[in-house]
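REQUEST FORM: STRUCTURE PREDICTION
Request ID: SP-0412
Submitted by: Lab K.M.
Chain count: 1
Length (residues): 140
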Amino acid sequence: MEKQKFREFLTTKGLKLTKERDEILHEILVMKKHFDPEELFVRLKTKGSKVSRASVYRTIPLLVEVGLIEEVERIDRHAHYEKISEDRHHDHMICMKCGKVIEFYSPTLEMLQREICQKENFKGVRHSLEILGYCEKCGG
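STATUS: Completed
RESULT:
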């Protein structure tokens, strides 16, 4: 499904689903954690892929634009990403010292956001919440 969505998106941009883009997408879809472009590149190389570093860096913004991955803000200003999951929403707590990302889900927060949208006659489609602070190890 994601591959077809990406292929159709690329077509609208006048681009093709090349072997490199397909390998990059596949690797992201099997990953279970946040990643940065360099980690993704190294992971692909370790598996014997011929994908170039430039292809990884050029493909990531396309995957963000089509809505398959999203950027997770990091304090060190170093972009990290995660795949967007339709069935498992979560928010993030990010340590401002070590950059650790803690995923969490709060039904109370979700309900509050729905209530606010309803009060403002706003149809929320999705959201991203990041709480910045310090993890237990760094002085939380």
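NOTES: The longest strand covers residues 91-95.
Reviewed by: T.R.
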